[in-house]
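Request: Show me your protein:
***
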Amino acid sequence: MKVAILSGSVYGTAEEVARHAEKLLKAAGLDAHYLQRASLDELIAFDPHALLTVTATTGMGELPDNLLPLYHELRDRLPNWRGRPGAILALGDSSYDLFCGGGEMMRELYAELGLREVVEMQRVDASETVTPELDAEPWLASVIAALI
């Protein structure tokens, strides 16, 4: 199964988690590719069977700048991915009002695209962890099990 991994990152943490996810998914036998800063045309050409997004939250509960162009392209063009599996890992800080708001934005977009959330969105709290890539491993194991 071909899995596209996307990330929205401010300080690089989400990118590191996305790279770690790619490694774990490949080790499990999935054809996983981290598509850093992909355009919608590149994503459509890749033609993923499943989509995994790892995103931080910035500003007032928004997506980071590096994921916003793709987010807007997806909302404007709405490719027909109805029924394809998807999963979202949201990074945030619970001391802010809109904890993991970027992940919630992606979750709403997944619903608009008709993507099927195979595992409930995981929220990782930056105020409680210094190793989000390790904290995400049990959740990633559930995603892998759902995709295999």
